[in-house]
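Have a think about this chain, C-alpha cells included, and walk me through the fold.
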Amino acid sequence: MAKIKVTLVKSSIGSTKRQKAVLAALGLKKMNQTVEHDDSPQVLGMVRKMSHLLKVEEVK
C-alpha cells in the first residue's frame, strides 16, 4: 500500500467541531505539522473532507 504525507497548511480556527475532530483523527494539531498515513479509503475520505486546509503529497 502506498503512503501519503499530509500537512496542515491553513488554520483550523473557524472550523466546526466535526472538522477539528477529523484533523485530530489524522494526527494534525499545529500549523505546518506533517504526518504520514497509508492511503486507505478511510484516510483518503478524511483528507478529501479537509482538502481546503491540507497539502497532500505521495511518498515514494
About this structure: The mean pLDDT is 96. Residues 3-59 form a domain with the Ribosomal Protein L30; Chain: A, fold (CATH 3.30.1390.20).
